[in-house]
C-alpha cells in the first residue's frame, strides 16, 4: 500500500507545482523582460559608448567621466541638501500631526486623514502647474504678496539660484504628508496602554510620556519612514524637471534629473547608465548606514 | 489611561484642549489643501493672459471659458483623457489579475524555486527606477520598435513586483485548512484561486486596483518618453505640453490641471476608505 500511495502523492505535488508555474508565468515574463533584463543591460551599457547599432566598449570611461564631472558632484550635493531639508522636517510634521489627531473622535480622525492625504491624489504635473503660479515672481504672486505683509521685498523664487532650491523645499514641506501621518497614527494606536498606566502611576506628565514611551515605541516606524523617505528623495526629480528644469545655473539639478538629461536630452546612454548605477550604490549604502545606526535595538 | 490626560470631572478643560488641537489641525489642513483650492477656484476665471489677470484668493467670477480654451488648444485634448483611461484601466485589471495569481502561488503553493524566485523579486524592488529607465527605453523604442503605441504605454506596467508582494503578504494570512478542504472536495488550483482566494482577498485587491489606477493615471515620465504624437499622449503629457505652449494663460492652465486631477478626486471621495487603508496595507508589517 505504502508503495502505491507514494507515487500518487508525488503526482499531486507535481500537479500543484505545474499550477504554480502557470500562475506566476506572466508575472515572471514581465519581470524578466522589463526589470531583470534592463538591469543587466544597464550594467553592459555603462561600459559602452552606446549606439543603436554597433556600440563600442569603452571600459570604465563612463564611470571615470562621472567621477571627474563637477556637475555630477554638484547634483549629488543638491540631492543631499534637498534630502536633509525635506525628509526630517516632513517626519517631524507628520509625527506632530499624528499626535494631535490621536485624542480626537474616530470620525474626526478620518476626516483629517482624508484632507491631509488629498494632495497626494493629484498628479505631479497638475501640482507643479499650480505651484508655478504660487511662486510667480511678479509682485502679484501669492508668495510675494504673503512676504510683502512682513515687509520683505519681491523674490524671483524659482528664477534665482539663491532661492530656487529653497522654493522646491518649501513646496515639499507644504505638500502632502498624508501617507506618513496615517502610518504614524496606526503605530500610535498600537502602543499598549499599560505603558501609559504605569507612567501615570509614576506621575509622568504629557511630555515625559511622549519622550519615554511614544518616541521609543515608534522607532521602527520612524526608521521605516526615514529609509523610504531618503530613498524616495534621492530619486526625486519630477518637480525639479517641471518647475525649474534644474536651473538656474544648475542650482536645482538633482542626480535623477542629471541622469534623465544625459539619457534623453544628450542621448549619452552609456554615461546615464553609469550614473544610475552609482546612484543605486549610493542609495544602498545610505540605507545600510541608516539601518546600522538606527536599527540597533529595533526588532523585526 | 492614555497618552493624553482624560481630564476626568473637568469636561470644560477637555473641550478647551480639543478645541485648540482642532484649530491647529485646521490651520495646517488649510495650508495643505491651499494649492488645490487655488487651482480649482482660479480655473473659473477668464481665459486671458496673466498680465491682465490679477489673481485673488477668493472667487470673483464663474465662467467655464478657460475649460473651453484648454479643450480647444488641441483637437486631441479629449483623446488624452481617453488614452489615460485606456492605459490606467488596462494596467489596473492586469495587475489585479496577474499579481493575485502570482501572490497566491508564492504564498500557498509549494514549488521548486519558490524562495529563490521571491527573493529575487524582493531584491529587484530596491533598485531605483533610474537604472532600468534607459535600457527599458532602448528595449521599447529600438528593439521592439513599438514607441507611440498603447503597448509601449502598458506593457512595462503589466504587473508590478510591489503588487505581487502586496498580494502575497495578504494571502499568506488565509488559513491553509480552507484550501486543504477545497482540495479534498476535488477543486483544482485554479478553482481554489477563483472560488476561495479571490473572494477572501476582495479588500486588498480593491486597494491594489485603486492605487495602481491612480499611479498609472498620474504617471508622467514614461508616457512622455515613449509617445511622440499628440494623439497618443496621456492627459499628464498633454497638460505639460499645453503649459509650455501657453505660458502666460493662467486660468486655462489651472483648468487643465483641474481636468487632469478631477477624475482622481472623484475616485478618492467615493472610495476614500480604500485609499486610506491602502497606505497602511503596504507599510505596517502584518
TrEMBL record, chain A:
Domain ABC transmembrane type-1: residue ranges: 76-290
Keyword hit for Acyltransferase: no
Coarse class of the protein's main subcellular location: membrane
Pfam family, any one: BPD_transp_1
Bilayer topology annotation: Multi-pass membrane protein
UniProt-listed PROSITE patterns: ABC_TM1
GO BP term, example: transmembrane transport
Alphabetic keyword roster: Cell membrane, Membrane, Transmembrane, Transmembrane helix, Transport
Compartment list: Cell membrane
UniProt key word Transcription: no
Stretches that traverse the bilayer: 21-45, 80-102, 114-134, 165-189, 210-234, 272-291
Gene3D superfamilies named among the record's database cross-references: MetI-like
Organism domain of life: Bacteria
GO cellular component: plasma membrane
InterPro entries the UniProt entry points to: ABC_transporter_permease, MetI-like, MetI-like_sf
Family label: Belongs to the binding-protein-dependent transport system permease family.
Protein name, per record: Spermidine/putrescine ABC transporter permease
Species lineage: Bacteria, Bacillati, Bacillota, Bacilli, Bacillales
Automatic annotation (TrEMBL), chain B:
Entry keywords, A to Z: Cell membrane, Membrane, Sugar transport, Transmembrane, Transmembrane helix, Transport
SUPFAM superfamilies assigned: MetI-like (SSF161098)
GO annotation terms (biological process): transmembrane transport
Residues spanning the membrane: 20-40, 80-104, 116-144, 150-171, 192-214, 249-269
Compartmental location: Cell membrane
Phosphoprotein is among the record's keywords: no
PROSITE patterns, A to Z: ABC_TM1 (PS50928)
Residue span(s) of domain ABC transmembrane type-1: 81-271
Recorded topology in the membrane: Multi-pass membrane protein
A GO-annotated cellular component: plasma membrane
One Pfam family cited in the UniProt record for this chain: BPD_transp_1
Statement: the UniProt record of this protein carries the keyword Iron-sulfur: no
Top-rank taxon: Bacteria
Family affiliation: Belongs to the binding-protein-dependent transport system permease family.
Name of the protein in question: Multiple sugar transport system permease protein
Amino acid at each position: 500500500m505504502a508503495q502505491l500511495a507514494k507515487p500518487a502523492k508525488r503526482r499531486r505535488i507535481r500537479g500543484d507545482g505545474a499550477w504554480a508555474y502557470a500562475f506566476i508565468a506572466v508575472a515572471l515574463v514581465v519581470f524578466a523582460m522589463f526589470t531583470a533584463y534592463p538591469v543587466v543591460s544597464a550594467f553592459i551599457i555603462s561600459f559602452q559608448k552606446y549606439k543603436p547599432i554597433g556600440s563600442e566598449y569603452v571600459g570604465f570611461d563612463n564611470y571615470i567621466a562621472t567621477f571627474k564631472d563637477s556637475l555630477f558632484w554638484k547634483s549629488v550635493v543638491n540631492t543631499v541638501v534637498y534630502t536633509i531639508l525635506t525628509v526630517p522636517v516632513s517626519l517631524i510634521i507628520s509625527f506632530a500631526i499624528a499626535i494631535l489627531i490621536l485624542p480626537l473622535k474616530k470620525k474626526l480622525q478620518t476626516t483629517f486623514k482624508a484632507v491631509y492625504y488629498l494632495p497626494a491624489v493629484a498628479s505631479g504635473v497638475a501640482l507643479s502647474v499650480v505651484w508655478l503660479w504660487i511662486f510667480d515672481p511678479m509682485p502679484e504672486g501669492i508668495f510675494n504678496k504673503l512676504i510683502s505683509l512682513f515687509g520683505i521685498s519681491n523674490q524671483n523664487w524659482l528664477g534665482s539660484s539663491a532661492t530656487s532650491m529653497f522654493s522646491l523645499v518649501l513646496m515639499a514641506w507644504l505638500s502632502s504628508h498624508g501617507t506618513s501621518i496615517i502610518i504614524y497614527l496606526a503605530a500610535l494606536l498600537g502602543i499598549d496602554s499599560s505603558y501609559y498606566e504605569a507612567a501615570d502611576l509614576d506621575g509622568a506628565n504629557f511630555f515625559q510620556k511622549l519622550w519615554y514611551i511614544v518616541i521609543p515605541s515608534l522607532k521602527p516606524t520612524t526608521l521605516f519612514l526615514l529609509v523610504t523617505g531618503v530613498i524616495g528623495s534621492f530619486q526625486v526629480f519630477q518637480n525639479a524637471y517641471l518647475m525649474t528644469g534644474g536651473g538656474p545655473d544648475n542650482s536645482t539639478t538633482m542626480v535623477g534629473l542629471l541622469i534623465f538629461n544625459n539619457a534623453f536630452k544628450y542621448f549619452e546612454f552609456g554615461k546615464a547608465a553609469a550614473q544610475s548605477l552609482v546612484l543605486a550604490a549610493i542609495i544602498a549604502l545610505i540605507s545600510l548606514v541608516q539601518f546600522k545606526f538606527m536599527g540597533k535595538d529595533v526588532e523585526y | 489611561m492614555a497618552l493624553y490626560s482624560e481630564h476626568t470631572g473637568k469636561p470644560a478643560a477637555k473641550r478647551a484642549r480639543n478645541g485648540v488641537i482642532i484649530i491647529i489641525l485646521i490651520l495646517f489642513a488649510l495650508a495643505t489643501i491651499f494649492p488645490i483650492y487655488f487651482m480649482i477656484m482660479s480655473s473659473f476665471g477668464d481665459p486671458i493672459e496673466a498680465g491682465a489677470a490679477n489673481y485673488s484668493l477668493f472667487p470673483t467670477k464663474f465662467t467655464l471659458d478657460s475649460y473651453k480654451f484648454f479643450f480647444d488648444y488641441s483637437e486631441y485634448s479629449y483623446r488624452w483623457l481617453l488614452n489615460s483611461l485606456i492605459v490606467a484601466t488596462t494596467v489596473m485589471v492586469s495587475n489585479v489579475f496577474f499579481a493575485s495569481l502570482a501572490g497566491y502561488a508564492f504564498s500557498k503553493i509549494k514549488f521548486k524555486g519558490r524562495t529563490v524566485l521571491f527573493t529575487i523579486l524582493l531584491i529587484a524592488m530596491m533598485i531605483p527606477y533610474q537604472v532600468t529607465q534607459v535600457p527599458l527605453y532602448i528595449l521599447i523604442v529600438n528593439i521592439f520598435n513599438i514607441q507611440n503605441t498603447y503597448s509601449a504605454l502598458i506593457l512595462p506596467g503589466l504587473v508590478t513586483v510591489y503588487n505581487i508582494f502586496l498580494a502575497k503578504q495578504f494571502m499568506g494570512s488565509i488559513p491553509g485548512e480552507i484550501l486543504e478542504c477545497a482540495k479534498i472536495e476535488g477543486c483544482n488550483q485554479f478553482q481554489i484561486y477563483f472560488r476561495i482566494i479571490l473572494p477572501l482577498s476582495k479588500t486588498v485587491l480593491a486597494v491594489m486596483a485603486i492605487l495602481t489606477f491612480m499611479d498609472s493615471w498620474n504617471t508622467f515620465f514614461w508616457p512622455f518618453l515613449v509617445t511622440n504624437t499628440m494623439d497618443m499622449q496621456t492627459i499628464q503629457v498633454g497638460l505639460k505640453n499645453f503649459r509650455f505652449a501657453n505660458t502666460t494663460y493662467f486660468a486655462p492652465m489651472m483648468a487643465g490641471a483641474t481636468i487632469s486631477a478631477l477624475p482622481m478626486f472623484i475616485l478618492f471621495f467615493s472610495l476614500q476608505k480604500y485609499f486610506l487603508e491602502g497606505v497602511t496595507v503596504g507599510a505596517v508589517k502584518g
